Amino acid sequence: MGLCIEREAGGEPIEGKIAVGTVILERVDHRDWDGETIKEVILKRWQFSWTMPEAGEWYYNDAVAMASNWVDAYRQNESLKKCCDIATGMLQGEIPRDPDLAAVHCCQYLNPRVAPDVKEKWLVSGMKVIKKIGRHEFFKEEKRG
């Protein structure tokens, strides 16, 4: 979970890191098709950009190298350490989920500069932007009657 937070929000303020952690945990708790565990949710195809080669060869390879050489990556990367601390704090209940995102069981976010076509598709489908943090927008899925 710490690696996922770092890859998705390493350059974001702490609120952005907590927001990504919130989305991960909300997916585990409220969206069975994403997976029943944190690992299943994170590794679900097309859910997190850093797990896909389409993120860019360097970025993808860097993520694979971090995961493959975890001990060294953790020792050498301050951002990764901070994100692991946030993940641990969230899992232990010491750091609460983002209250705005948890209140609507937010499970979707993206960087609209990287994926403007996805944002447009989501807005057309009825999803609403509920919060912006750093470079990311977090969406609420509207229930259809």
What report would you give on this structure?
By secondary structure, the protein is mostly helical. The protein has a domain of 100 residues. The protein is 54% helix and 10% strand. It is built from eight helices and three strands. A three-stranded antiparallel beta sheet has the order 1-3-2, with helices on both faces.
Give the topology string: H per helix, E per strand.
HHHHHHHEHEE
Q: Radius of gyration in whole Å, from Cα? A: 15 Å
How many H/I helical runs?
A: 8
Helical coverage, percent range: 40-55%
- C-alpha end-to-end distance: 34 Å
Task: Report strand order across the widest sheet.
Answer: 1-3-2
How many distinct beta strands?
Answer: 3
Write the layout of secondary structure elements.
Blueprint: H1 2-9, H2 14-30, H3 38-43, H4 57-68, H5 70-76, H6 78-91, H7 99-103, E1 108-110, H8 116-124, E2 128-133, E3 136-140
Helix pairs in contact: 1-2, 1-6, 2-6, 4-5
In a nutshell, what does this entry contain?
The protein has 145 residues and is mainly α.
Keywords:
3 strands, 8 helices, 145 residues, mainly alpha, three-stranded antiparallel sheet
